[in-house]
Amino acid sequence: MDVSVFSTRPYDRRFLTAANASGAHRLNFLEPRLTVDTAKLAAGSQAVCVFVNDLLDAEILRMLADIGVRLVALRCAGFNRVDLREAGIRHCAAKWVVTLWQREGVKSPDSKDLTAQG
């Protein structure tokens, strides 16, 4: 699956590249936040992976759906910037919350530290 990863930092690249060691997905790492102006960067991807400050309001979700995005993966615990009604009813077949945290971020007590493996 082609995945556009917004708001990417170096630790995101390391963590997600290690998690995708099998190469099952083609990750397109993008530094900009997901906004109405950057949504088009996901063209050609079936999924987007976003972080806490990325915006997934109704307008952006419609834009993503129009370019073929069908899955939204959140790599944060919060989803207050996601229009859940729009995501669930109209556009996204599935939504996930990634519960594994990077060492540089906030970590829950039961999380695995995949960054130590590489």
Topology:
Elements: E1 2-5, H1 10-19, E2 26-29, E3 47-50, H2 58-66, E4 71-74, H3 84-91, E5 94-97
Parallel strand pairs: 1-2, 1-3, 3-4, 4-5
| Largest sheet descriptor | 5 strands, parallel
In the CATH scheme, what's the topology name?
Rossmann fold
Query: How would you spell out the order of helices and strands?
Result: EHEEHEHE
Q: N-to-C terminal Cα separation, in Å?
A: 23 Å
Structural class: alpha/beta
What share of residues are in beta strands? 15-25%
Mean pLDDT: 80
State the oligomer.
single chain
Q: Under the CATH scheme, which architecture would be assigned?
A: 3-Layer(aba) Sandwich
Summary of the model, kept short:
With 118 residues, the chain is an alpha/beta fold.
Explain how this protein is built.
The chain has 118 residues and is an alpha/beta fold. It has a single domain (2-101), classed as 3-Layer(aba) Sandwich (Rossmann fold). The chain is built from three helices and five strands. It has helices at 10-19, 58-66, 84-91; strands at residues 2-5, 26-29, 47-50, 71-74, 94-97. Strands 2-1-3-4-5 form a five-stranded parallel beta sheet, sandwiched between helices. The longest helix is centred in the N-terminal third of the chain and has 10 residues, at 10-19. The chain is globular, with a radius of gyration of 14 Å. Residues 99-118 have low confidence and may be disordered.
Question: What are its keywords?
Answer:
single chain, 118 residues, alpha/beta, Rossmann fold, five-stranded parallel beta sheet, 3 helices, 23% helix, globular, disordered C terminus
